[in-house]
Amino acid sequence: MVTLGKYGRSVSIIGVGCTPFMYTVDHPETNGLTEGEMFGYAALKAMEDAGVNPQDVDFYFHGEASPLNGSNYLTPNVQIANWFGMKGKGSIHHSEACCTGYLAIEQAANAVASGKYDCVLTGAVEFGDSSPFPADSVETPKHPYKREGHHG
Fold first, then answer.
1. Where is 44: in which H helix or E strand?
2. Structure confidence by residue, pLDDT tens digits, 54-92
3. Alpha-carbon distance 11 to 120, whole Å?
4. pTM, rounded to two decimals
5. What is the secondary structure of 85-138 as a DSSP string?
6. Rounded to whole angstroms, what are the CA distances from 133 to 67, 69, 109, 127, 146?
7. Beta strand 90-94 with 120-125: parallel, antiparallel or unpaired?
8. What integer pLDDT is reported at residue 111 of this predicted model?
C-alpha cells in the first residue's frame, strides 16, 4: 500500500507538450511567436498528447519569469487564455525565475492531490534573450525578436 501523506489521492501526468528546443526564429513554425503564444503552443500539444480538450481542464497554472520584461503583460495567464481555449477558466500566474517550471508542476500536483481539481494544465515559458537591451522602462513594449542594438 502506498502512503500518500497529507493528500488523499495520487496524481498522474497524462500529457506533455513543449516548444522546439532551438532558436525559435530559425524555425518556420515558431518564428515570430511571443512568450504567451509559445505557452499556448505547448499547452495545445500537452492537451493533444493527453487526449483532452480545453473543456476537460478545470484550472490552469501559467508560469512566466519576468512577464513585464518579456511580454509586457501584468496578468499573462488571463491575456493569453484565448490562445489555447481557456478563456473564462480559473487560473493563476506565477513567476519564480529559474524554478518557475518546477513550481508549475508542483502547484498542479498539489491541486489534483488535494482533491480540489481533477484535471489541470500547467506550464512555464521564458525566452532567455527577452530582456531589454539596453535596459529601459517597463512601459516600453518588449518583443524578444526585436533585437536592434543587441550586442550579445
1. helix 35-50
2. 999 999 999 887 766 666 677 888 888 988 999 999 999
3. 11
4. 0.76
5. T-TT-EEEEE--GGGHHHHHHHHHHHHHHTTS-S-EEEEEE--TT-S-SS---T
6. 16, 10, 37, 14, 10
7. unpaired
8. 94
> Can you identify the CATH homologous superfamily of domain 32-125?
Thiolase/Chalcone synthase (3.40.47.10)
CA–chain centroid gap for 97, Å, is 13
What's the one-letter identity of residue 91? S
Give exposure, 99-130, as e/b (b: 16+ Cβ within 10 Å).
Answer: ebbebbbebbbbbbbeeebebbbbbbbbbeeb
pLDDT < 70 regions, the chain: 1-5, 67-72, 127-152
Query: Of 20, 17, 25, which is closest to residue 129 (Cα–Cα)?
Result: 25
CA distances to 20, 61, 69 from 49, rounded to whole Å, are: 15, 18, 31
Q: How far is CA 4 from the centre of its chain?
A: 28
C-alpha torsion sign, points 39, 42, 44, 46: negative
